[in-house]
TrEMBL record:
This is non-specific serine/threonine protein kinase. Keywords: Glycoprotein, Kinase, Receptor, Signal, Transferase. It is found in: Membrane. It is an enzyme of class 2 (transferase). The keyword Nucleotide-binding does not apply. InterPro entries: WAK_assoc_C, WAK_GUB. It catalyses: L-seryl-[protein] + ATP = O-phospho-L-seryl-[protein] + ADP + H(+); L-threonyl-[protein] + ATP = O-phospho-L-threonyl-[protein] + ADP + H(+). One of its GO terms (cellular component) is membrane. The lineage of its organism: Eukaryota, Viridiplantae, Streptophyta, Embryophyta, Tracheophyta. Residues 156-250 form the Wall-associated receptor kinase C-terminal domain. Its EC number is 2.7.11.1. Residues 1-20 form the signal peptide. GO terms for molecular function: polysaccharide binding; protein serine/threonine kinase activity. It comes from the Eukaryota.
Amino acid sequence: MSSSIIPALLFFSIIITSLADESPIGADYRYSNCSQTFQCGNIANIGYPFWGQNRPEYCGHPKFLLNCSGQTPEINILSQQFRVMGINNMTYTLNLTRSDYWGTYCPNDYENTTMDYDFFNYTQNTQNIFLYYDCQPVYISPPITSQSIEFICDNTTNGNSITGYYVTRNLTSVLNLSAICATNVIVPVYQGNAQYLESNLSTSNLLGAIDGGFGLKWNASNSECENCVWSGGQCGFNKSTNGFICFCENGAHPSTCHPLITARVKTFDDDRLSASSCYLFFILARMNSGSGWAEPNKRMPSQVESNLGLMGLNPARPRGLGSGYRTFSIILIAIAINK
Ligand SMILES: *[C@@H]1O[C@H](CO)[C@@H](O)[C@H](O)[C@H]1NC(C)=O
Ligand SMILES: *[C@@H]1O[C@H](CO)[C@@H](O)[C@H](O)[C@H]1NC(C)=O
Ligand SMILES: *[C@@H]1O[C@H](CO)[C@@H](O)[C@H](O)[C@H]1NC(C)=O
Ligand SMILES: *[C@@H]1O[C@H](CO)[C@@H](O)[C@H](O)[C@H]1NC(C)=O
Ligand SMILES: *[C@@H]1O[C@H](CO)[C@@H](O)[C@H](O)[C@H]1NC(C)=O
Ligand SMILES: *[C@@H]1O[C@H](CO)[C@@H](O)[C@H](O)[C@H]1NC(C)=O
Ligand SMILES: *[C@@H]1O[C@H](CO)[C@@H](O)[C@H](O)[C@H]1NC(C)=O
Ligand SMILES: *[C@@H]1O[C@H](CO)[C@@H](O)[C@H](O)[C@H]1NC(C)=O
Ligand SMILES: *[C@@H]1O[C@H](CO)[C@@H](O)[C@H](O)[C@H]1NC(C)=O
Ligand SMILES: *[C@@H]1O[C@H](CO)[C@@H](O)[C@H](O)[C@H]1NC(C)=O
Ligand SMILES: *[C@@H]1O[C@H](CO)[C@@H](O)[C@H](O)[C@H]1NC(C)=O
Ligand SMILES: *[C@@H]1O[C@H](CO)[C@@H](O)[C@H](O)[C@H]1NC(C)=O
């Protein structure tokens, strides 16, 4: 490597660093808007794939609109309303319960829980309980007694009461409740709550199990979003392609803010240095071939001066990829000095 290349490398490393630390002023408005998480009811810091309130639709997945008008967020899945009591964006799981069963085992209409398996599935620790309505009172022999699994629903419209039975597992082979009840409804609950109910059959524990919710795992282009975020982007959705989109400071991209980052994510586990190395080879290759800069750096010339000027005034460098780019800069400088 000739000595004349050293100032060039230093120059480029400064540019890369300053680009990485660039202020969000002038960043794509969708990138800026989608960087904001939102508060919905009593849950704060909600991000992709959810949207609603002041978080625009393109920042989330169409199926993940949250209704924030109440104290607890609500989500609509296959025309059924669910109260969202917890969102875990590390495990992609929701803790939710059916809105029509909130605080009651006597809903106005008898509807089974339906699930959109294209985007959701129950977690391993979720199981069904079975609620039977409009039953003829019967004698059920111990250890399970008719009394222990019985509940009463009052119909406020006509003033009548109906008898119901609940079971935590399918007892049809020993006790065919379908034969004595007009209808039944399947409600998912956490396994632990179902077991507790089983160990102590009571309507208050039944209510506790239902209100305790159940676990639901979501899939809204999860891995695509991970790659996008890793590359410094914000996840979103393009309604016209009906597909994932990655909003970057310099605009929208189909998957990540830089194609090479995808290569890294597929090849390595979680090592920023590797990506930095990718950039190293990428830039050296570009320099050797004498061609121009790749897309992300197209706007560079107009910004070089102001960024260089800002460098000294901007020591904080708060954002994610900055350190990765700085590592790269250090590698570049180290190579330049070594040669
Ligand atoms: C994920 O959850 C954490 C903790 O609630 C929150 O700080 C963060 O903003 C969330 N991120 C996204 C992208 O939703
Ligand atoms: C998105 O960002 C633009 C520009 O910052 C702003 O004018 C607009 O109100 C934002 N949209 C939403 C829905 O927050
Ligand atoms: C939002 O939730 C409220 C109750 O919290 C409900 O009255 C309203 O109908 C819901 N809106 C939609 C669009 O589902
Ligand atoms: C309550 O009674 C009304 C009027 O008879 C009936 O239409 C409705 O289906 C009943 N509700 C339930 C939950 O059984
Ligand atoms: C709920 O599903 C069960 C099992 O598939 C079925 O037997 C029952 O009739 C369904 N109940 C309603 C109200 O549709
Ligand atoms: C949902 O998860 C269960 C395991 O919890 C699995 O057996 C089932 O195949 C999954 N269903 C879909 C549609 O992914
Ligand atoms: C319960 O078991 C019976 C057979 O014992 C079966 O016919 C029925 O479909 C099962 N019901 C549910 C909801 O799994
Ligand atoms: C339970 O009762 C229903 C209604 O009488 C009947 O259709 C069904 O075959 C019975 N199931 C079993 C397992 O006996
Ligand atoms: C069973 O549950 C009821 C209501 O939750 C409670 O009052 C009672 O002490 C429990 N009994 C046992 C043996 O745990
Ligand atoms: C689910 O939410 C309910 C109600 O807030 C809470 O009591 C329960 O501990 C939560 N369960 C899990 C597994 O997060
Ligand atoms: C998630 O959904 C995508 C399609 O949108 C599918 O290709 C992928 O296999 C799904 N992943 C899981 C774990 O279900
Ligand atoms: C969404 O997809 C359409 C069709 O491919 C494309 O024209 C449009 O530019 C995309 N939107 C964004 C924000 O990239």
